[in-house]
Amino acid sequence: MKKKQKFPTDIKIGIIGGSGIYNIEAIKHVKEYDIITPFGKPSDKILVGELENKKVAFLPRHGRGHFISPTEINFRANIYALKLLGVEFLLSISACGSLKEEIKPRDFVLPDQIYDRTKFRIQTFFQGGIVCHISFSEPYCNNLRKLVYEYCKKLNITTHFGGTYVCIEGPQFSTKAESNVYRMLGFDIIGMTTLPEAKLAKEAEMCYVTIGIVTDYDVWKEGNEVTINEVISNLNANAENSKKLIKTIIKNLDITTRICECKDTLKNAIFTKKEKINKKTYKNLKLLIEKYI
Ligand SMILES: [Zn+2]
Questions:
Q1: Of the listed 107, 218, 254, 264, which one is catalytic?
Q2: Of 44, 116, 188, 216, catalytic
Q3: Assigned domain for 16 exists
């Protein structure tokens, strides 16, 4: 028989760290959990502890030591493991490139839209005999986005509120032709990791926000083509700012009530009749669906 896993289930705040953020030193009373989900293992052990007197869970998206490429991230296991811990509010940090002159390296962006250019990723928890169509017209939680913006301003971090994040497959950066097309389409930032993370967080009924940290001008700007050194130096410079921001947000986040629609995303979205769902699929998804079917 499989050993029952032991972990807390009352951790309402989750943080996913992107490139450059593999740890948040300010988290106290840390315990690490190696969680196995029906979708496999998350990127790494999840660190659980206290930040500003609130319980938080932290997961580095690429693993500690940055060994998982964007295509190979097990996004489903990451989100499911955080859901198992009880996460309702998820702050996701993503390094990204800028597609606009006015969005400068080291600025922060809180995108409100996404354009999907990924190719090899499983985009849903719902398969294997169950069909679910959630609304994805607003991919991020607007309440949480507004709160994050408020504290970016308070900390004097230059932040762009809104914008479209084009998510490419990678791991290579874009060609100039691609970068110019994205600019013509009016997109604002470019990265490799907000999808399917945002879709899965929504299916898991979490309030989710991406904090985009600009590291470069992608490749469209003549004489400013992305270099790895530049990306890394901007990432390091920004890591401290983003950790400060995370602390401030958590201090001021009210985790006792959720007034947005995120918590009811699956209501009326599951199309399959309960008697048609096989036992294994139901068991795997019970955590997400049992309040509805
Ligand atoms: Zn929400």
A1: 218
A2: 216
A3: no
Stated pTM of the model:
0.96
CA 241/CA 110 separation, integer angstroms: 15
Q: Could you tell me if residue 230 is inside a domain?
A: yes
Do residues 160 and 186 touch, judged by C-beta distance below 8 A?
A: no
Task: Tell whether 214 is covered by a domain.
Answer: yes
112 is an active site residue: no
Question: Could you tell me the distance, in angstroms and rounded to a whole number, from the CA of residue 104 to the centre of ligand 1?
Answer: 28
Strand partners, 96: 214
- Chain mean position to CA 123: 13
Distance 213 CA to ligand 1 centre (A): 21
Q: What is the CATH number of the domain that holds 282?
A: 3.40.50.1580
Q: Are 216 and 223 in contact (CB under 8 A)?
A: no
Q: How does pLDDT run across 141-178, given as a tens digit for each residue?
A: 999 999 999 999 999 999 999 999 999 999 999 999 99
What is the tally of structural domains in the chain? 1
Residue 277 belongs to what domain range? Answer: 93-289
Distance between Cα 204 and ligand 1 center (Å): 11
Tell me the pLDDT tens digit for each residue of 64-101. 999 999 999 999 999 999 999 999 999 999 999 999 99
Token look-up 């947005």 returns 260
Would you say the C-alpha torsion 260, 134, 110, 23 has a positive or negative sign? positive
Distance 92 CA to ligand 1 centre (A): 14
- Count the residues in the chain: 293
Q: Record the tokens describing residue 168, joined without a space.
A: 């490419």
Asked whether residue 257 is domain-assigned, the answer is: yes
